[in-house]
Structures are given as C-alpha cells and as structure tokens.
Amino acid sequence: MASAAIRADLLSDTVTRPGVAMREAMATAVVGDDVFGEDPTVRELEERVAGLLGHEAGLFTPTGSMANQLGVRLHVKPGEELVGDSLAHVLRAELGAAAILSGISSRTWVSQRGRFRAADAAELMITGVGPYQVCTALVIVENTHNFGGGTIQSLDEIQRARELTRERGVAMHLDGARLWNAHVATGVPLDAYGREFDTVSVCLSKGLGAPVGSVLVGSSDAMAEARVWRKRFGGGMRQVGILAAAGLWALDHHVDRLALDHARARRAAEAMGAAAPGAVDLSTVETNIVIVDVAAAGWPAPDFVAAALARGVRTYAVGPGAVRLVWHLEVDDAATDHAIDVLTALLSERRSDSDPA
Ligand SMILES: Cc1ncc(COP(=O)(O)O)c(C=O)c1O
C-alpha cells in the first residue's frame, strides 16, 4: 500500500509520526537505567501522569496493552474473573492476554456502543461464593470507548459503579487509552475520572502523538508490585527516557489540540450524514471517532474501504457494514476536506444506484 498516495489517513490515531520538535525533545532527554529506577525523564513522566490522574504513583510501559494487563494482574488472582463490556479492548483486542498471563476468566455484558452502565456490571458480578463459583475481582471500564466509536463514559455511572464495587470488594480498572479525549470533550478534570479507579492506564501513542508508551497509575504499593510484574512480562526497559521525553512533550503540546480532532470529526460526520441520511448517527459522534454505517448506503464495508483507499482516504472496517474513521494530528483541515469529498461521493454513489427509479 503506497502511503504517498494517502491524503487523509483515518485508519487510527496510532499512525501519527513524531514531528521535529518532539524528536528534539527525545534526542536531548537526560536518561539512565530505568530497571534500576535511574532514568530521571521516566520518573518525571510517571510522577506527572500520576498527579494528573489523582494517584500516588505511575509506571511507564511500552504499550497500552501491557499497562492494562498489569492492571488485571494486580487485581485478579488466578482462577478469579474480570467483567467488562463485550467490545472492550482488554477483552476483544489483547488476544486473550488476561487468560494467558494472569490465568483468569472473563465475562461480558452487551452494551450500546460501549456505553458503561453501573447496573450492567452489578448484574454480572458474583462475589462471596466461596469454592462454588468463580468470584468477580475486577470491573473494566474503557473511556473513551474505541470500538464503541469514541464514546464518552458518564462520570455518574462510574461513581455509581464505584459505590457498588466498594461494597462488594471488587476493584475497578480504567482503560483510559483515550481518556485525554474524554477530558477535552467534557471539561471533566482527569483526576475526577482517575480517582474513581484503583488503577488507570493512559496511552501517549494515540491522540497525543508519541511514537510509543503508556502509563499505569495507582497506589505506591500497587505500582511497586506492577514494576515486578512488568519485568516478568518482559517490559523492563533501560535508557527509555528518550521515549518518556516524547510523552512529556506530548502532554505539553498535544492535549488541548484534541478539540480540533473532535471538531473535524464532527464536520465530516455532518457532511456524510447529509450526503447519505442514515449512514451516520450524529448523536454518537462525541470525540475523534466516527462510525459510518456504509451498509445503509448500499456498501459492504471491505468494498467501501478499498474504494476510499483508491482515492487517497484510508479507513478501517469494524464490521461487515460499518467503517471507522479516526481523526488525529496528521489530519488537518485540508485532509478533512479531501476525506469529506471522497467519502460523501462514495456514499451518494451506491445510494443513487440502489434508489428505486
Ligand atoms: C481502548 C484501547 N485500549 C488499549 C489499547 C492498546 O494500546 P497498545 O496498542 O499500545 O497496546 C488500544 C489500542 O488501540 C485501545 O484502543
């Protein structure tokens, strides 16, 4: 696939490449051996993210998946279970890691677009069943919700779940890969979300545009234990301050600008909705992700993805008739205009073919 031909890369917000200023910050970072806890730039990043999220300590990890799996490992003993929604990244896209790395089972509820409701978690949790059934040890919440289409979770529902889980001795982990987007879209402070959870993972490599890296936060004791498990999982890294520096740079420069991604996603969603009524439900466009029901405009998703790519717009099929578009810092107004031209034309094309004469 020739990337030079791509004029709007809406595949994912993970495709961003570090710019010159970020690379300079990386090149000049002060570093040390982080396995010995001697990398000042990593320590600065861990402390800063923990502070932002209202927790005592943080741990830098190479990926969001590792940060999530460390959260799982901390809270769920072998033979216990976690519960989450059926579209959650931890359950759907981490390739069975919870079962393999932690020896646990998982059960899911079905949600509308990944929307979290405390009642769904409460209904599924089983506690105090001794040797007879599997005990629930952890509830996972994802905010924003990726496969749900950038869905923002309600703080009220999260707080309700916190009360219920506290009463029953169940932990809560937040997969906050895109918590930055929820914070920018709603104005809810990061720590207001963060404090409701025992552990939170956030990604620096999605909308924030760092090349790699996530941070897990929690209590000092929990992070000390997570540090041991990170080494066991093969994630002990050495002079990794060069990567942490990219994360610090991203925190300084790339959080507030997420509002631009949200505005561009909405502008495109409105244009597509006008071109093909029924293809985009505008009430579901909350952040930087738009799910397009291309089937409603007569397209199988793989054909739509191929046709858009042939015209310079890269997208991703999330189902047989649904395509996901993700805005990020490499999709500016001009790229958004191009995407709108191409995608609205495609949506109108088949619609008119299939319209009765
Ligand atoms: C919601 C969510 N959580 C976790 C991850 C995992 O991040 P990584 O790819 O760094 O493992 C992703 C990746 O897209 C994600 O969307």
UniProtKB/TrEMBL annotation:
Its EC number is 4.1.2.5. It comes from the Bacteria. Keywords: Lyase, Pyridoxal phosphate. It holds the Pfam family Beta_elim_lyase. It is an enzyme of class 4 (lyase). One of its GO terms (molecular function) is L-allo-threonine aldolase activity. GO terms for cellular component: cytosol. Residues 9-296 form the Aromatic amino acid beta-eliminating lyase/threonine aldolase domain. One of its GO terms (biological process) is glycine biosynthetic process. InterPro entries: ArAA_b-elim_lyase/Thr_aldolase (IPR001597), Low_specificity_L-TA-like (IPR023603), PyrdxlP-dep_Trfase (IPR015424), PyrdxlP-dep_Trfase_major (IPR015421), PyrdxlP-dep_Trfase_small (IPR015422). The modification N6-(pyridoxal phosphate)lysine is found at residue 206. Belongs to the threonine aldolase family. This is L-threonine aldolase. The lineage of its organism: Bacteria, Bacillati, Actinomycetota, Actinomycetes, Micrococcales.
